[in-house]
Amino acid sequence: MTGPEPAPAQYDRPVDEGSEGQQGAPRRRLRILLVIKGLGYGGAERLLAETVATGDRDGFDYEVAYVLATEDGLAAAIGAQGTAVHGLGATRSVDVRWVGRLRTLIQRGSFDVVHFHLPYSAALGRLAVASVPRTSRPAVVYTEHSLGNNAAVVTKAINGAGIGRDQSLIVVSQAAHDALPPRLRARARVIVHGLDMSRADALLARRDEVRESVRSELGIPSGHVLVLAVANFRAEKGYDVLLDAVRVLHDRGVRVRVAAVGQGPLEDEMRRRHQELGLGDELQFLGLRDDVLRLLAGSDVFVLASRQEGLPVSLMEATGTATPIVATSVGGVPQVITDGINGLIVPPGDPVALADALERVASDPGLRRRLGAGAKRTSAMFDVTSATREIEGIYRDLAAGPEAGARHPPSSSRAATGSARDEEPPAIGALPP
Question: Residue 400, class by beta-carbon neighbours within 10 Å (0-12 exposed, 13-18 middle, 19+ buried)?
Fold first, then answer.
């Protein structure tokens, strides 16, 4: 177990007396285990955390398991909400002992549904589910967060072989749906996820103060436009294109400063490229941050230079903070951003086009105001509560299916007593390797 010790899990607790089943008996909470490769600050990880935070605690008991021990940035925040968080203890992707630990957790946890996020956790995690006796085997849900083509070849192959046997398949954007193999599209359900926009609204209420604080922290000179990029350093995020665009802006004398939030395997390479281009203070690397909304609210422009995307969380956050957007026409982005209305759209892989758009928005305060207002109107589509309720509807449908009775027979002592504290699974660190 990494992160804080989770609150004790309560198994099969009855809901409040007013929530009853068809025959008047209190309806037990459904047990849901969310499984993901890591709990770092990536988009899928943050969407998972938002789902748990807005979950219906009268109807569901949520627990979370993550594979990589080093990717635990969000574990403490999720655990602080009273959700049990289980680290499966893998030190790297090739360490597959976590599959056995997941199987033990599933067996001891008596879950109704195991919901996998991202290809790696699903590809191998399904093996743990399949090895559980059928009478206690949970239903499986899988969410595809991207276009599905940036995973390792072996992971893609294993995930592709197993995805058709899942009881439910969710995708986060129409673009992600359209990228699925034809055999999967008919059964895939598009659910546009969201965020708690109240935090963005609170920052907007004091935007001048936030802007002054952010610019002071980052050392942004007066008269310069602050552009924020939020993405991890991977090939598909297009940081090489962004750096080249910043060099174009430098050569044109455009007064722009760019700040990049993120980490990843290409960070060192991009830092070397930064030095080769002589960008100096014109682009600074901020590393991982837990105050992205604050940084967005304090910025003048949000930029997304990606070569591929599903529907990035950073784009949702930029709409919530009414930040003008310059983004590439990839994945679900064109389904959210209309050029000239709530952002500017450019082709991927084109640093000159990206520089042109950034120069245009940097030199026109009126355009920034119009695009920011349009972005804020767009944020209404990212309603995290609606998305969570739709997902919970899937859980209920699966739990009411033909195998539900075998998993939780009405006469079981767990259903009768409403709790089984003596049968709680231990923290994952105590499980056998």
Answer: exposed
